[in-house]
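Hello again, I could really use a second opinion on something today. I owe you a coffee for this, so here goes:
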Amino acid sequence: MLKTVVKKGSYHDSVVLMLLTNKISAIEGVKKVSIMMATPANKDIFKQSGLDTEELMAASANDMVVVADIDDDALLDTIMEQTEEFFRQQSAKSGEKKGAESVKSWDKALQKLPDANLAVISIPGAYAALEADRALDEGMNVFMFSDNVTLEDEVKLKQKAHEKGLAVMGPDCGTGIIQSVPIAFTNNVAPGSIGIIGASGTGIQELTTIIDRLGEGVTNAIGIGGRDLNAAVGGITMMDMIDAMEDDDAVKVVIIVSKPPAKEVRDKIAARLSNFSKPIVTLFVGEKPEYHEENFYHAYTLDEAARLAVGLVRGEKVPEAVADVDESTFYKAEDHKTIKAYYSGGTLANEAAMLIKDAMDVKVPPEDIEGYMLQLDGNIVVDLGDDAYTQGKPHPMIDPAKRIECMQEAVDDETTGAVLLDIMLGYGSHEDMAGALLPTIRELKAKAENAGRKVFFIATVCGTRRDYQGYDEAVHKLREVGVIVCENNKLACRTAIRAIGRDFVEPEKEVRVKEVVDAPKGVPSEKLRALLSEKPKIINVGLKSFAEVVEQFGCEVVQYDWMPPAGGNVELIKVLNFLRHYDGLDIDEANREVIAKVVASQPVIIDNVRAKEVIPELNTGKVILHAGPPVAYENMPDPMQGSCVGAVLFEEWADNEADARKLLESGEIHFIPCHHVKAVGPMGGITSPNMAVFVVKNMTDGNEAYCTMNEGIGKVLRFGAYSEEVVDRLRWMRDILGPTLGKAIRKLGGIAVNPLIAKAIAMGDEFHQRNIAASLAFLKEVAPTITKMEMDEKDRYDVIKFLSDTDQFFLNIMMATGKAVMDAARTIERGTIVTAMCRNGYEFGIRIAGMGDQWFTGPVNTPQGLYFTGYDGEDACPDMGDSAITETVGVGGMAMIAAPAVTRFVGAGGYEDALRTSTEMTEITIDRNPNFIIPNWNFQGTCLGIDARLVVEKGITPVINTGIAHKIAGYGQIGAGTVHPPIECFEKAIKAYAEKLGFTS
């Protein structure tokens, strides 16, 4: 039975998850299990394994998914417990290391390391090309460890890099050394005067380690990716690197290693190399050259290429290695024994297949069928690193399981005379692969001997004495159990071939006069010269282990803890890239203009009047304003409809609930969003003509905004109550409170809002759930004037008492302020800054600067938080209200850290959670507001300028503090918490803006 667990927003790299999968597979009762991120490619792998489920298919690329085939449901708890323990151990290991500084975005990475010149990318292939493109735009060379990048994307990237004087190494580039710094799966090699350019990861490893053990070194070994010499790519990186290495005075000899190139590419490379000014050695694995040319050598094997290069540096011939083995016990050809070769390195497997075919004197073209490089008369060579074996599973360099399985099958085959294998040392490889294989080798040798058979185990260890696993230690362990360990892969292959009574011939090559072709030479760019002559400054996008290694070698490195941008939606990633590259408008500059208007705003409370006196639309028949984007009455949640009933009774358009509802359902009343008439309203937002509203004027731009007054707590209109008590309070606010405040405000000549906000934020307000300091500051402003006004003493007392008791009174002033400020800012109809967020219990809506008045909506969420006694989440109404204008302007939930006292009330935990929340909000905003300083945030300003692009890219939506209304009208507020907008609002907004600027999908 398939069981699925989806861990939303829990991103882990593929290597870690493959190791975890192996661990969980060992649990008794688990028939089959796979743990991967739910990317489109990984979903295909789940399907191929028969592990696809509905929950998996609904998950996003940012979600980790566990699918297990188990009979016992209780086993799922065990799986998840061990999974959590695995991650805890991983975290503990990471915590023990100093590690590179981690960031979560390109912008942050570039802030930390503005002069970075190399991006190392090890993320899923579907996204790797997009991130590589970004790196090129930032002026960085690219090392692409990632595979599954399309050929079309590779061509585009390499052409772009060439035009910019940069290089793209890869994709599927597993190995590189740059200025003696090992990149990815690489050995610790001594620096030296031999340069390598290779379309082969393990080929580079074999060359560099042989050179190192011979006493020479390699400072730069540039991987170019397996398809660079494809006709479509045309050897772009290869040709650029040939020019760069010829120009590099530190390089004395160059080795080029690759599979045989496309003919037209080979001819181009050969022509260029014919006039290369330094000795050069070429190796096209699978070909058997018959001659050398002057200073232009053509090797048959990796060992030959390495020894040729060392000899050219030293000016002397380097003798071949020999195997220390008693060949008298080897089989004869007539015994008809076979070789079973299991490699973790593709190039080494390819070389083994070539040499075995040579020994058999068989002329068949190279093959690669499901990892099989050779299947010939019972002889097999398998590349266990092939996709057929590694999809969703650890690579054989780091996990011995598949090789153990293969060796067991080999020994069960009575024709097997020799088992041939490689042990890869170096960064990224198993910490003790030799030790991991020993028990199996010992067991299998004994099994063969007990059956009266000989099976020779022959190995090559690819590594240096500097590798952390220890070359000599690995060799010693293998020899102790009777493994014949050879100095290099060629010698191991020859020994295995001799073990079954065969051999191959390697005739001495003559040296011919070089045919020089007049081929153009390129001039390497300064950026490429710097890449080969200076220690790289690296932004590591993906596997943390790569950053840890380069840091050990003295590199400046920033770890970019990458997650799929835009939830892994490739179409949206293209939209983001279009907006980033768009040259018709500097969007970043436009966004800065918008937030500059916010900072420059000078909001002032200038009056309190009846809504119809300042909103002309309310004088055109029966009109009611509501919160959020446009919504029909029938789609309003029950509390908002209840608020409408209250408004009808307040306006005396009906004198009972039944008639009020009948009127509302008749269509006679016209509903308008508050935002459409310069207004905002809390919760239901219901505003009718005679309700009292604050008038806030932005003196900088001259625009006004309006909001009703806060009714206090308990049964109130904004939460859907409409009893006589509620209506009577509204009438008192209309007749007494509003006129009193209006007169006081006018006498004061207006009240500047920014100073009130600045004072209150330093006193613990965040202006959505906590407004007590600001409310008291407002009272302090108006109270002296009210005490001097000519008015009924009871009314005076009631007004001051109401203001004193209503802790949230300032919220509505803040809302009108936010509206006045953002309406002025959105007069700049360019860019992607969010200028409004609101909700109506049915939909959540946003506006962005570049799209003017257009709303972008999605289904509204229900707040999560704490509830008053007797209520829970089942009772909650979906989110509603225009009060998210506070978060739009940068306070409220965006400034959670300012009000640690309120964090627990809204369900956010304690101080650390508040700090984490506000810090996360800086990921989606572009600046800080210097007007509103938060003392307990190291005196930094509030977040400023929500950028819809960043929201989509990072999958982080703004956090909104809010009250929670009961889903049934009349109950009022039942709790408080936080809510997030649906991300689709932001996705729709940036896509529409991109299309406005000319984007086509």
About this structure: The chain has a mean pLDDT of 92. The first helix runs from residue 14 to 25. The longest strand covers residues 925-934. The two ends are 41 Å apart (CA to CA).
